[in-house]
Structure formats: structure tokens, C-alpha cells
Design a protein that fits this description.
66% helix, single chain, mainly alpha
């Protein structure tokens, strides 16, 4: 894929903005999407197996639960718009997913022995994720970090699927 130039580094041209957006989407956004949603499925699958279908009531902090309720109300108030998903886990972002993993470390540890390293890996892509989510460009070092976490996350989900049922919430 031919590299595109960051539109912010040249005189304004609407076509440059469009090409920049296409490049960021094709080169980086999909990777972060895969990391975040795979993390969502992993956490959901492990906590569902450990605590049952109402795990959100006990495994998610009151602060995150309040935010989920607030987001759900906001979407309910705009019924013509799409929603993030049916399950509460879709109303939390990457930093909240990481916090849920940290709080429930004791439940996840039997399934993911290196959960502490995973929490650290996810933390390394949290800020780059926010940069891309706000439609900006990453530095090469951040792109390489995202690539490494993506590769490791896909390996983790493959490994887990041999020992637990991976369920999409």
C-alpha cells in the first residue's frame, strides 16, 4: 500500500484529508478495532465462564457501571442511531476493558497465566488508540507497537479457543 502524507503537514486540500483518512483506516484503525474487540470477547468469555451471565453486576466497578448506564441512556435517547451493541461490554472502551481485567485478575489468571503482561501490553496501545480514534496519525514506533500487540492478541485468542468457549457478547 502506497504511503500517504499526513494532510496536516501541507497546505489545506480536502482531497489530502480524504486520502489521509483512508490511509489511517487501512493501515492502523482496523488493527486497533481487532485488538479492542478481541479483548472484549476474551474478557466476556472468561468472566461469563467464571461468574455466569450476570458477571457485569459484580465484575465491573461501580464507576464503569455508571458510565455504561449513562452511555446506554444517551443511545436510547437517539433511537435512529446505531448502538455499540446489545451487551454492556460494548459500552466500555479499551482503558475500561483493561481496568476490568485488572480488577478480575484472580478470575482471569487460571485461564490467562500472563494476564499481568497483557494488562501492560494493552496499556501500551491505549494512547495510540486514542490518537487514531480522534483521526490522527501515529508515529512509526506506535505503529510497530500496535502491530506487535495485534499479533500477540490474535495468538492469545487462538490459544484460548482450545481451552474455553469464545463467545461474542
Amino acid at each position: 500500500m502506497a504511503a500517504s502524507k499526513d494532510f496536516r503537514r501541507a497546505s489545506f486540500d480536502g482531497n489530502r484529508v480524504k486520502l489521509s483518512g483512508k490511509f489511517v483506516g487501512r493501515s492502523t484503525y482496523w488493527k486497533l478495532y481487532t485488538i479492542e474487540n478481541t479483548m472484549r470477547v476474551v474478557i466476556h468469555s472468561v468472566l461469563l465462564a467464571q461468574q455466569g451471565p450476570h458477571y457485569c453486576d459484580t465484575a465491573i466497578s461501580p464507576t464503569i457501571q455508571r458510565n455504561v448506564r449513562r452511555y446506554k441512556r444517551a443511545y436510547a435517547g437517539r433511537p435512529l442511531h446505531a448502538t455499540p451493541g446489545r451487551h454492556d461490554i460494548y459500552y466500555v472502551g479499551l482503558s475500561d476493558l483493561n481496568e476490568i481485567a485488572r480488577i478480575n485478575r484472580h478470575l482471569i489468571l487460571p485461564v490467562i497465566a500472563d494476564i499481568d503482561q497483557w494488562i501492560a501490553r494493552i496499556e501500551k496501545v491505549r494512547l495510540p488508540r486514542n490518537i487514531v480514534a480522534h483521526m490522527n496519525w501515529l508515529r512509526a514506533v506506535d505503529r510497530r507497537r500496535v502491530d506487535a500487540v495485534l499479533r500477540d492478541m490474535l495468538n492469545l485468542s487462538d490459544r484460548l479457543s482450545t481451552s474455553i468457549v469464545m463467545l461474542i457478547p
